[in-house]
Every structure is written in structure tokens, then in C-alpha cells.
Amino acid sequence: MSEQQLTHIDDKGDVRMVDVSEKADTQRVAVAEGFISMRRETLDLIVEGRAAKGDVLACARVAGIMAAKQTSSLIPMCHPLNITKAKVECTPVGPGARDDGRTGIHVLATTGVTGKTGIEMEALTAAGVACLTVYDMCKAVDRGMEIGEIRLLRKEGGKTGLWERDPEKS
After folding, report:
1. What are 148's strand-pairing partners?
2. 131 in a known ligand binding site
3. Is residue 106 part of an annotated ligand binding site?
4. Concatenated DSSP letters for 69-119?
5. Cα dist. 142→47, 82, 138 in Å?
6. How confident is the prediction along the chain (170 residues), in pLDDT tens digits per residue?
7. Catalytic site residues (predicted)?
8. Which of 80, 101, 116, 155 has the greatest number of beta carbons closer than 10 A?
9. What are the distances in angstroms from CA 73 to CA 32, 63, 81, 91, 122?
10. Which of 10, 11, 99, 136 is catalytic?
């Protein structure tokens, strides 16, 4: 295939689930990130464990892992995968720690599988749902929180091998 094609579109332009039955099983890993920015007071509430709904970061980690396992139920053309790894890390980021000066939570999601198709959507879904969970648990005190920067950082395995985001172009 010399030119890139959308794999979920057939020759007639109809959507389809890609047939992966002939592909070899390989070990695949994907890493995605997200960021939820918030007021400093909201971050302090989270870090100090004073949120009314409980441990925000623990809940976000669990929600992200659960979301990774449910990706094929949410994204129509995703294959159900027997995930072998799902890890979500939530790191508080205070003022001055980022070049843009924003305060919030950085989410890093890592997913893995041994299978015939990639695991990128599971990592992206985990990062997004972890950020959404932080929003849900803290919206009563900060409706102005913003979720962004949900993006793939790295994928490895399969026919295309290793892909990493160029930090200079991010």
C-alpha cells in the first residue's frame, strides 16, 4: 500500500470493522496522555484529600483502567481485546511546573495486549475517562476545569513497529 488509506472504509465508502484474522499475534503497547487544568485551590483540595466525593486520583486511576477494558463498547469499529496491561498514573502539577504555567492533573495511560490489532484506542480512552472522572469529582467547586492534550505518545508492536510522538512538534 503505497498511499495511506482509511482502514475502516471499504471500496464503496461504507464503514467496516477491519478483518484482522490473517494478522499475526504480536505484543503491543500504547501510551497516551491527557491533562485537566484547574484552579490552584482545586488542586490543593485533591492533593490534601479534602474532596467531598473521596480520593479523586484513586478513583480516576480505576476509572481509566475500567474504560480501557470497555473501549470496544464505546468506539464502534474497535475490536474487543483481551488486555494484558492497563496502568493509569495521575500526577498533580502545580504552578510553575509547566511552561504554560497551568495547574492541574497530568494523566499517563499505558495499555498492552498480545493480539492481532493495536491498543492505542484503549490508552486514549483510559486517559480521557481518567480526566473526565477528575472533572466529575470536582465540578462542584470548579466548573471551569478544562480537559485537553489527550494524545498518543507511543505505540509499539504489529506490522508498523514503533511510533513515538516527536516532542519538538507537540
Report:
1. 35
2. no
3. no
4. HTHHHHSTTPPP---SEEEEEEEEE-TTSSTT---EEEEEEEEEEEESS--
5. 15, 37, 6
6. 345 676 777 777 777 777 787 888 999 999 999 999 999 999 999 999 999 889 999 999 999 999 999 999 999 889 999 999 999 999 999 876 667 778 999 999 999 999 988 899 999 999 999 999 999 999 999 999 999 999 999 999 988 899 999 987 66
7. 136
8. 155
9. 19, 15, 11, 28, 11
10. 136
53's grid cell: 466525593
**Secondary structure (3-state) at 164:** strand
Q: Is residue 20 part of a domain?
A: no
In a domain, 24, yes or no: no
CATH code for the domain of 107: 3.30.70.640
What distance lies between CA 143 and its chain's CA centroid? 22
Residue 109's Cβ-count burial label (10 Å; 0-12, 13-18, 19+) is buried
- Report if residue 21 sits inside a domain: no
136 catalytic? Reply is yes
In the block, residue with C-alpha cell 497530568: 106
Q: Which domain holds residue 50?
A: 31-165
Total structural domains within the chain: 1
